[in-house]
User: What shape does this take?
Amino acid sequence: MNETNRNFEQHELEKIRMRKMKALMEAKRQQDVVKDKVVSMSEKIEFILKVVLAPEAYNHLNNLKVRESNVYQAIYNELISPDVLQNIDYLLAIIRQRGGIPRRIPLDAIMFLERKIKGIKSKIQVKRGDDIMDLSSFLSNNK
Assistant: This one.
């Protein structure tokens, strides 16, 4: 009877160990899942910018980030509105579900925003003989 009792206790101890081991493994798995899901907001935004911008536009924006941070910040604020920040997880889900987006924002759009922020107006100049004048002056003189 002593032997049977000892076997029973061993069996119960083994069951307790297995339950604890299972609980530890489940806790570790849950922790890994949470760790994978908890990605910082800046990483999410960076991912969205990579997907939404054409490669040359993304590179140009990153160059602005290094060279002219105030211009970069203004363009960033233009691209990433509060609505985007509020719905970022939804946007990520849509991008992942569809495998990307059909059209990307081209370099021209980023350059347009950059010029707008810097206050650079477009100028078309016309050369007539030795005179160089802007297009509006040229057209108004030819009437």
